[in-house]
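Q: Can someone sanity-check these two? First one:
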Amino acid sequence: MINETYKRRLEAKSVIRELSEYATSRGQEIGYENVFDYSLGNPSVPCTEDFTNSVIEMYEHMDPMDLHGYSPSLGNTSVREIVADSLKRRFDIPYETKHIFMTSGAASAIAHAVRLVTKPGDEVITFAPFFPEYMPYIGDAGAVLKVVPARTEDFQIQEEAFLEMLNPNVQAVLINTPNNPSGVVYSEKTLKRLAEILNQKQEEYGHEIFLISDEPYREIAFDGVEVPYPARYYDNTLTCYSFSKSLSLPGERIGYIAVNPKAVDADILAVICGQISRGIGHNCPSSTSQLGIAKVIDETSDLSVYETNRNLLYDALTELGFEVVRPGGTFYIFPKALEEDAVAFCNKAKKYDLILVPSDNFGVPGYFRMAYCIDTEKVKRSIPVLKKFVETEYPNR
């Protein structure tokens, strides 16, 4: 018998993936250069030469048995040590090797983290707008996802709604900063207040509430802003990271969980993650990827194109009358649609070969996401098309 839960998901495919597939199909008809595809958050800059060269060097000179053998279940020990040392230097938190668990990207990190701190029936709170895949990550662990409505004026945390949603069954809070889809960076004020609330509720409920911090866009920040590191403000923090965006390595599937050394049971949480891996199959991430990122641990790709694209789109959208919060990072922008039905809005845009993602699955109706990790030349060419779309479809806006 086929599992009906997964079978039903075929009827509710990822809107983002569907739009990306449509864009590809449309590109085969008219040339992909004529399709302004803002659907998929796939990095558009190359990985660093140092990463490429380090992998080439490993393949040429390392013992194949050492390079291609299984890594330990917690990850390559030397790589975990290098990751811990980098975090310690950057954020002044005394991470050690024992606090790092290597994963197949941030998705795997979140899947492990949720299972680490919840049991079936427990609640996990997140904040809209949120990455839609949080629903299967949490639901497949048997936990229940609760979503705090968005504070749309700035996409920081809506405190009153959060306080109303907290209850003794909440075991974890999941945040994403810089945020997909809004591009907003949680401020230090927001993170301090969040930590204050969680500390109060831990004492009130008599159990830990873990903060799961999803941070794959940590290095993509604009206007000279330094992204606050959530683990600095709250002890029971599990930091989930991926090198997919910072080093433009999404296909290599490599990331980690960093356990705050001050967290409850900090010394054994990574070991428990190793046991979780036995059940969900996210075990022993690529040895090549682990060793490769260790060689360039503090490097990033040239991410400056994303700020250039952000500026072009933000200026164009505001000039056309869109309400939009200026992104502080990532490569996403999240304007309010020109009608209440975001799906209808995005379907109209498709007639102009503008591929925009409606906001419904992000937990905020009436908005749309643009992933501007595309060539700047294409962004520039899309702006007159965007203007034509708005002026033709919404002449009385």
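And here is the second, same format, sequence then tokens:
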Amino acid sequence: MRNMKYYCIGIKGSGMATLACLLHDLGEEVSGYDDVSEWKFTQEGLDQRNIPIYSDPSFIPSLDTIVTCSKAFSEDHPEIERMRNLGLTIKAYNEIIGDLTNRFETISVCGTHGKTTTSSLVSHVLDSVYGCNYFIGDGTGHADSNNQYFVIESDEFNRHFLAYHPTYSIITNIELEHTECYRDIQDIINTFEQFANQTKKGLIVCGDNENIRKIHFDKEVIFYGFREDNDVIAKNVILTKEGSSFDVYKKDSFYGHFDIPLFGSHMVLNTLACIIICDKLGIGKDKIHSLLLNFKNAKRRFAEEVIGDIVIIDDYAHHPTEIKVTLDAARQKYPDKELVALFKPNTYSRTAAFSQEFADCLNVADKVYLTEIECNRENPLDYPNVSSKIIFDHLKNGEMISEEEVNKLLQHKNAVICMMSCASIAHIKENYKTLLNKINR
């Protein structure tokens, strides 16, 4: 079969970077464009594959090249306009992923939170036992046309995942999010229901989540969680500085004991979903347990670095629930350290919708630093009264910070600094690390 050619605009975005890696692994010819010329963590896989990345209009494509674009890029972006004027086919990136889901036995992982970690857990176990393709939202992707299974993190943003028709689906939770493209929580529930019912075989869903319970499923469903009304239940949960442990019951029948090097009760739920699908696909509990013990979490998911008596945690958390569980996990692992939160809000619509909720969860920390909002897909003129101030005004011990003011963090000793955002906080982190390393020489 003739190899296809793809030009990925917005290739350093986490989803587009992953897609580019998958297409390359499947033998396609891939190149890409991004406005950002500086290095981003999402391009690690692109660099490993020597995929060309342009940040100027110098790429001259052949006429059979398929162009796909990140939704972060507007339709009138100059590079998209240039491709359109050349007469090239432009195809939505989620449609290309949808085509891939039909080529393999696909396990789709969706939900407002926990998608990346749960996808990483499932792909870690399946790849170790059978070999599998995977699409993880941290920019990690791999594919082999000979593999049977394909694990895909499936994003509900702009209803992207409705282009997918997986074999099995996991739904971790449903909450209000992406208020720029959903009317309300019922609109979100309806969209998840549509997605769930285009799953081919069955679903594994968190029964502790009330919004999931509102879905009318027309496929086999396994409910999991901590509540007794679930089909698979985590009991006897122990959260320590070393990690988490729990017992799994299928209704009243004991299934097995599991230990994980992860922190927070939300990680127990993510792992429970992984255990269920891997058990369903024929992997024994002892094998699952042993593989979970050496699991390493995805990029920018509770990623830790230690410099002297300071622990820096870099996390993708950008929704109040995600911030809460990240700070709770930091408390679990480092109960004797000062807990400091640094948060960069992303998107004006999300900040407006959750200003009080952001403040409430950030106030769990001993000290909070807040940056101004960073957003590349919304026009600030459309949100004239929205800034980080609407969060800041509700903080108990808050302070604004910028990249030029990182030295403010040096006042903290024996502390865990949680840097959280879905926008890039690399400059703040690297500048802070440079200052710490000078002090600790």
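A (reply): Looked at the second one. The first helix runs from residue 14 to 25. The CA atoms of residues 307 and 436 lie 7 Å apart.
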